Amino acid sequence: MxxxxxxxxxxxxxxxxxxxxxxxxIPLFENLHADDVHGFFxxxxxxxxxxxxxxxxxxxxxxxxxSRYERYSPAVQDTVVAIREWCESQSQx
Length: 93
Known about the structure:
Elements: H1 4-15, H2 21-31, H3 37-43, H4 46-60, H5 74-92
Helix pairs in contact: 1-2, 2-5, 4-5
């Protein structure tokens, strides 16, 4: 299980172009708990939050369907749903 600090490093690697989008999303899916998503994203600095939202709206939005993640555990599926809900709520505000 990666710590929040390690997940932050993954996001920063994505920002620098070192890793591809899926290499950022998969660790988030597998290491955040659904009930922790909101707090984790809210603690990110505004630039990284904007990066997450931009990536979600531009790339991942169409890839966040439940059927795509059925092979994962229910906990990971719950996290995917929580991330999708957080991104969509931020996009509406």
